[in-house]
Amino acid sequence: MTSTLTSAAPAVTHDAFPINGTDYIEFYCGNAKQSAHYYRAAWGHQLVGYRGPETGVRDRASYLLVQDKLRIVLTSPMGPEGEIAAHLHKHGDGVHDMAFWVPDARTAYQAAMDRGAQSYQEPTVHRDEHGEIVTAAIRTYGDTIHSIVERTNYHGLFFPGFVPVASPYQPVGTGLKYVDHCVGNVELGKMNVWVKFYEDVLGFTNILTFDDKTITTEYSALMSKVMSNGNGRIKFPINEPAPGKKKSQIEEYLDFYRGPGVQHIAIATDDIVKTVRELRSRGIEFLKVPQTYYDTVLDRVGRIDEDLAPLAELGVLVDRDDEGYLLQIFTKPVQDRPTLFYEIIQRKGAKSFGAGNFKALFEAIEREQALRGNL
Ligand code: FE2
Predict the structure, then answer these.
(1) Ligand 1 centre and the CA of 102: distance in Å?
(2) Distance from the CA of 160 to the center of ligand 1, in angstroms?
(3) What is the 338 CA–ligand 1 centroid distance (Å)?
(4) What's the alpha-carbon Rg for the chain, to the nearest Å?
(5) pLDDT of 263-304, one tens digit each?
(6) Which one of 3.10.180.10, 3.30.1120.10, 1.20.1280.290, 3.30.420.10 gives the CATH number of domain 21-164?
């Protein structure tokens, strides 16, 4: 690791904002029905639930998809009115909600509000024959929110209003297991504002910092700070653009998303070669690094358990920190706007985020940016 990367996690003695883990990620999209098919066919998620006009919800249709511990909700508006349509009009398809699964939603919401959170939804009880769920929500960067979900007294599928879907179409999974981290892009000068928000309001700590000397290419640079909650299950790196010769990938995102938002979601797998092979065979497009990357990678990271040939064939990147190494790869954007993309990550002890790959990776992103005429 370079000297510009600093690890600054203090020992956690008291979790100021207990979170069990990620509850779900909700996307607002133009055609949730078709997006659901994409995530089933290409990513191997199972469609397990639905809520919409047929189940008594008039203004939207939502599809619940799962793979192992990963749970996503795809939602489309039924007309041009309202917040979902406005979100979609401005941002295109994107992440609206990164929901926290908490032991006590009312206490969590109140604690966040007392420390300066902006409310999106006050605590609300949702009931059906399977019990009750308490939710509240606070705002984070841009139009993104964090729902706060307490499901201790709920034994149904997911949420009142969702009905189970038993489809004969059940493509096999791709080995994706859970959300490892979610990255936000914010405007120049705003990274530390949001770092402070996660520290002050949600009791997160800044576990890693990358300055613009770590993350720099010939053309563009960015700065990033990684925020983690008390138990380490929620990790939110926050990026801001740094001045460079040309437009940085963060600025491109901000231009096309029309403001801050979620840049990428990293999903964990136990076998990245198998997962990426499967995803590629189903049409997922990944960024490629030059083959020269593999000429020197083992000099940099040392011995790894995997054969290098399949990693080089697929374009999987390797990085090491004090505790082990990690394997990672990034998709191209998954909608027409160059906004949200995915990372697939396999951790072999490493707790970091692949800083050693940033240069090779960003050069790959810039080649794509140049193709789009945005560099
Ligand atoms: Fe990442």
Answers:
(1) 24
(2) 33
(3) 16
(4) 20
(5) 999 999 999 999 999 999 999 999 988 888 998 899 989 999
(6) 3.10.180.10
